[in-house]
Amino acid sequence: MYKLALIGFGVVGQGFAELLRDKQSTLREAYGLEFQVVAVCDAQRGSVLDRQGLDLRELLAWVGEGKSLDQFPGEKHGLDALETIEVAGAEILFEATWTDIKTGEPGTSHIRKALAQGMHVVTTNKGPMALFAKELLQDAESRGLLLRYEGTVMSGTPVLNLLRHSLAGCCIEEMQGILNGTTNYILSQMAEGGSYEDALKAAQQLGYAEAVPDADVLGWDALAKVCILANTVFGAAIHPDPIALPCVGITGISVEDVARAKKAGKVYKLIGRVWREGNEVRVSVGPQELDKEDPLAGVNGAQNALKISTDVLGEVTIRGFGAGKTPTGYAMLVDFLDIHQSLSR
Ligand code: HSE
């Protein structure tokens, strides 16, 4: 029976908790996976800890009604994230706080603290993994702990697991794709005649956009993801600095640009790219006008896709949701299962 602590209970944390609630018996029957959520802590929604386990169904309904976790029945309330990690007695931390690509905080401190406490970690937070992947992964490994982060790139669409497991025998030469759901949603809406402002508002309501959506529309979020790919797949050490690196977002693209491209049989997409140049690894993010025949051209809405050029299999393309409550919550679920299966071996 794993004891779980959930830090960050916004769109993603709740998406994960809903899947835990709905799949509890399947997880037990199919994988022998049993768990108890012992703590939930969120900067806006308060915190509750109960070492006997919290009722997820009731807790989700409570938060759904807009009530504070500080009033939810439990043993302790009012703890901050670091205190929660310290006293919860949990074995696995699920970290789903907001991404800050400049500092990696507060997620990095949560992950460091959890590892120091002997906890395995699952995160969907791009800041810590874009900035400190090497250090955090080494820290986990040196302690015999597991750190999983599938949800940091293309949410629950299994791109990191694909690279780590199924493409492990290939040499990866280049990866390029659509790695931000918000901007792809906005560009898709604009191609259908919608306005940038309305599309951004809808992307926020649908839970695709970052807390501060500048990170999406300026290309920083896609840059964080290409850096995670570069640093964890190619072993590079690239700092996701949007000034120093070639990083352009979609704010310079007008409805007229999109319409002109459409007339010419083209489509605008924000493309992230990671490639090798001699011994160097390079990354870039920027809008491109793609031909309709390009496999990335028909990827619309909050869908993402990644084309992976390999030595053995040629080009492998994976496509699926890149943002949103359930797809990103699913990434946490599959990482949880992966930890369980790794520990059961
Ligand atoms: N804001 C991100 C996006 C969330 O739109 O892709 C998923 O990383």
Provide the CATH top-level class of the largest domain. Answer: Alpha Beta
What is the quaternary state of this protein?
single chain
Let me know the CATH homologous superfamily of the largest domain.
NAD(P)-binding Rossmann-like Domain
Beta-strand residue fraction: 15-25%
Structural class estimated from helices and strands: alpha/beta
Poorly predicted runs are none
Overall 3D form: globular
Radius of gyration: 20 Å
Largest sheet: 7 strands, mixed
**Whole-number mean pLDDT:** 96
Mind explaining what this structure looks like?
With 345 residues, the chain is α/β, with parallel strands linked by helices. The chain has two domains: 2-156 and 325-344, NAD(P)-binding Rossmann-like Domain (Rossmann fold, 3-Layer(aba) Sandwich); 163-321, Dihydrodipicolinate Reductase, domain 2, CATH 3.30.360. It has twelve helices and twelve strands. It has helices at residues 11-31, 56-64, 81-87, 107-116, 126-142, 159-166, 181-191, 196-205, 214-217, 220-233, 255-263, 325-344, and strands at residues 2-7, 35-42, 46-49, 76-77, 92-95, 120-123, 147-148, 172-178, 266-277, 280-291, 303-310, 314-321. The protein is globular, with a radius of gyration of 20 Å. The relative contact order is 0.15. The model has no long low-confidence stretch (mean pLDDT 96). Bound molecules: L-homoserine. L-homoserine (HSE) binds next to helix 7.
